[in-house]
Amino acid sequence: MSTQPVKVAVTGAAGQIGYSLLFRIASGALLGPDTPVQLQLLEVAPALKALEGVVMELDDCAFPLLHSVEIGDDAEKMFDGANAALLVGAMPRKEGMDRSDLLSANGKIFTGQGAALNKVAADDVKILVTGNPANTNALIAKENAPDIPAERFNALTRLDHNRAKAMLAKKLEVAVDEIKDLAIWGNHDDSMYPDLYNTKVSGKVAADLVDEAWIKDEYIPTVATRGGAIIKARGASSAASAASATIDHMRDWMLGTDQIVSMSVPTDGSYDVPEGIISSFPCRVKNGKYEIVQGLELNDFSKERILASAKRLQDERAAVEKLGLI
Ligand SMILES: NC(=O)c1ccc[n+]([C@@H]2O[C@H](COP(=O)([O-])OP(=O)(O)OC[C@H]3O[C@@H](n4cnc5c(N)ncnc54)[C@H](O)[C@@H]3O)[C@@H](O)[C@H]2O)c1
Ligand SMILES: O=C(O)C[C@H](O)C(=O)O
Fold it and tell me: Which GO terms describe its molecular function (predicted)?
């Protein structure tokens, strides 16, 4: 076991995602079985008492990999030296809301947190935004952290990726790991695009195994509105699955993966998606660095859907510019 703990900062640690996330990180699900972890947990002051209770429970698990836990409401203290920052803390939407309705309430959280990360995080920090609207909150944090390389700011579309995979596996009655090269493109909102034309199922193109009408009328809308369906069913937004996807994304980013995964990353003009936003792409990750998969063939339907989702992100960017957040 290496002795130097990796510092993982988590915001919104007393919330419902936090309650699932922290225990998985402490058990080794993020960094593997040989790496001790130091948790640095940021909350708003009124939630610190509840967070103390969560820390008591972390203690009571006697996790061998959990080196130490710090809590507080000062971002500069909790992000100090952080190698990974999981920005979860933000208000969730309620039934009937769109995620972009959260921009004015949540967006400002990410100006201060971006600035604090810029000041005190470790040189190798990787930042993943889960709090909604995740893509544009990540953009706000990035724009407020000019000294951190832009590519270190990601947003979470791995939950959508996992949902898309699970839903296709169920339809085709195959195991989830028979599905390869699936990716979500665009925004974490109902315009997101899961591309089945480049997805393989046991080596065959997924789109050839199902009806086109099912893809367009059932599959895409069901994947894209799954978050809302969960809110309707549970009366609260997804939590354990969101925590699991947050771990999947950051683990693959830090440790690498041989799979294509969906990551929302700063755009670089690939596939004609305009620069200046954080949008989801199929990515490969190696040695702590991701690359957008290049050279995929996109049909006209896919191109149209991807650019329509990018337009939503451009509109969100314009809205936060108007709010003075970037
Ligand atoms: N991207 C995704 O796939 C995805 C999936 C699920 C949920 N989410 C989003 O994640 C966010 C958190 O969801 P939740 O269910 O855990 O919500 P929650 O309300 O249970 O917890 C949020 C926590 O954040 C804290 N918080 C608020 N402002 C903060 C700040 N400035 N600094 C630190 N902490 C702060 C709150 O005190 C609260 O404890 C929501 O915005 C939700 O919509 C995203
Ligand atoms: O849908 C939501 O508001 C929560 C989250 O983004 C989700 O996709 O489950």
Answer: L-malate dehydrogenase (NAD+) activity
Ligand 2, atom 5, residue with closest C-alpha: 227
User: What is the structure's pLDDT at 94?
Assistant: 85
- Rounded distance between C-alpha atoms, residue 7 and residue 253, angstroms: 15
Lowest mean pLDDT among 77-86, 88-97, 109-118, 191-200: 88-97
Known active-site residue 161 = no
How far is it, in rounded angstroms, from Cα 265 to Cα 35? 26
CA of 92 to the centre of ligand 1 (A): 6
Q: How does strand 183-185 pair with strand 193-195?
A: antiparallel
Q: Does the pLDDT value for residue 3 go beyond 80?
A: no
Beta bridge partner(s), residue 10: 41, 86
Q: Which ligand is nearest to the CA of 229?
A: 2
Check: pTM over 0.90? Answer yes or no.
yes
Q: What is the pLDDT of residue 97?
A: 87
Burial class (CB in 10 A: 0-12, 13-18, 19+), 229: exposed
- In this structure, are residues 198 and 215 in contact, taking their beta carbons and an 8 Å threshold? no
CA distance 77 to 42: 9
The answer to whether residues 18 and 26 touch, using CB atoms and an 8 Å cutoff, is no
Q: What is the pLDDT of residues 20-37, one digit of tens each?
A: 999 999 999 999 999 999
What is the CATH code for 157-321? 3.90.110.10
In the chain, where are the structural domains located?
6-155, 157-321
Q: What is the DSSP letter of 98?
A: -
Residue whose entry in the numeric block shows the structure tokens 């665009």: 186
Please report, as a single letter, which amino acid is at residue 302.
Answer: S
- Please answer whether residues 248 and 158 qualify as being in contact, where contact means their C-beta atoms are separated by less than 8 angstroms: yes
Judge whether 93 is annotated as a binding position. Answer: yes
**What interface predicted TM-score (ipTM) does this complex get?**
0.99
Q: Is pLDDT of 1 > 80?
A: no
